[in-house]
Every structure is written in structure tokens, then in C-alpha cells.
Amino acid sequence: MKRPNSPTPISDAALTEAWPEFAEGIERAIDRTLAETWATMRPRCYERLLRGKVEYGDASFNQSLDHLIDEIQQEFLDAANWAFIAYCTTGDAALVTIASEALRGYAQTARVSEYFASPPRALKP
């Protein structure tokens, strides 16, 4: 895994080139139950990514890893809170599952942050 040294801008061409590798990595990581959802979500994610690049330029790509992790964690907190609000409205237990998945995502971002904050580890021969 690449250790980021400093934030760098990303060209439209580089973004377009990097997206398929990222998306295909998701496809390899998910199980069959999520595959159909990802098929719908993938173009929506990419559309939002491009829309954000037009609106914000390279600002997001120039943020530190700590800032990006914080932004991701804020989104997970929002997802859990929106699920709670919907749960209060409907009482649907599936919304509790959504909040728990947000918790899982939040915890994963904390692990990524800790990994990059630690000194590089030497590979054992």
C-alpha cells in the first residue's frame, strides 16, 4: 500500500484512469448479495465524484490524509444519525443494521488512520 507523502492534485485524466481500479477492487471485495447494489451504486459514485471535482476542483485531493479520514468518519456519523432519525419515524429494525454498518466503517477508517500514523514497518525476509 502506498504511503502518502503529501497531498497532490489529480488531473481529470488521472481520476478517470484510477476509478476503474478502485471500483474493480470493490467488486472483488464484495459478496454476491452486494454485487447488484454495487452495479447500481458504481455509476452514481463516479457521477458524484466528477460533480464534486467540477464544484471543488482539486481541493479534496489537496487535503491531508488526516483531514480525509475525518471527513469519511463524519459521513459515517451522519449515516448512523440519519438511520436513527428514520428508525424513529418507522421503527424498522433494518435501520439499526444500517447504523451498525456505519459503525463498522467508522472503525475501519480509524484503523487506516492508525496504520498511516505508525512508522513504516520493515519487511521481514
Which percent range describes the beta-strand content? under 5%
Tell me the number of helical segments per DSSP (H or I, 4 or more residues long): 4
- Along the chain, the helix and strand elements come as HHHH
Helix share bin: over 70%
| Rg, Cα atoms, Å | 17 Å
Poorly predicted runs are none
The class by helix and strand makeup works out as mainly alpha
* Separation, N- and C-terminal Cα atoms: 18 Å
- How many DSSP-defined strands? 0
* Average pLDDT score: 82
Shape: globular
Keywords:
mainly alpha; 125 residues; 2 domains
List the helices and strands and how they pair.
Elements: H1 12-29, H2 32-56, H3 65-90, H4 94-117
Helix pairs in contact: 1-2, 3-4
Task: Give a description of the structure.
With 125 residues, the protein is an all-alpha fold. The protein has two domains: 7-62, no CATH class; 64-118. The chain is 74% helix and 0% strand. It contains four helices and no strands. It has helices at residues 12-29, 32-56, 65-90, 94-117. α1 (12-29) runs antiparallel to α2 (32-56).
